[in-house]
Amino acid sequence: MASLKCSKCGYGIHYHDEPDGTEWIAFESELWKELCKSTKELSSYTSDSPSGWYSVWKCSECGTLHVFKMQDIHLFKAFEPVDKADDDSESRMNLIAFEDIIWDQITETDKTGQAFREVFREIPRKYICATETAVFVYRDPERKILEACYKKIDS
Ligand SMILES: [Zn+2]
Questions:
Q1: What are the tens digits of pLDDT across the range 76-127?
Q2: Domain limits at 138?
Q3: How far does the centroid of ligand 1 lie from the alpha carbon of residue 101, in Å?
Q4: What sign does the dihedral 119-70-60-83 (CA atoms) show?
Q5: In a domain, 33, yes or no
Q6: How far away, in angstroms, is 43 Cα from ligand 1 center?
Q7: How far does residue 45's CA lie from ligand 1's centre (Å)?
Q8: pLDDT, greater one: 16 or 72
Q9: 148 CA to centre of ligand 1 in angstroms
């Protein structure tokens, strides 16, 4: 079991082998498109990871998001939940995210990207917009129904 101390409230964030919303995997749209077209097995992406995907850990106590680049164990950025955040359209980046447990299940099988795309339609997911200073989480692919927003914590 992996653990992390929340950078905002100090609460221990623990990873369990059950879907509980703690850890999410997020892909930049470009990488996501590439994966969905791929005839390679998705499990091959774990060892030699392309950039553009992230692991996101959410503190169950205060809701702070901790973002890691997939190839790097060091914290990349942390974001705290806020009612409203500045939307800097200059630096917008779209991502798609789902619980890591699903990725684990999928990569345990030898599914190709194309096969994953078929089952992925049935899997709950989130649509994200990220800027330099904020993260917006949406329920819909058009990114209109806002679920939550977050502001970068300066370290
Ligand atoms: Zn916290």
A1: 999 999 999 988 778 889 999 988 888 777 777 777 888 777 777 778 889 9
A2: 17-152
A3: 21
A4: negative
A5: yes
A6: 32
A7: 30
A8: 72
A9: 16
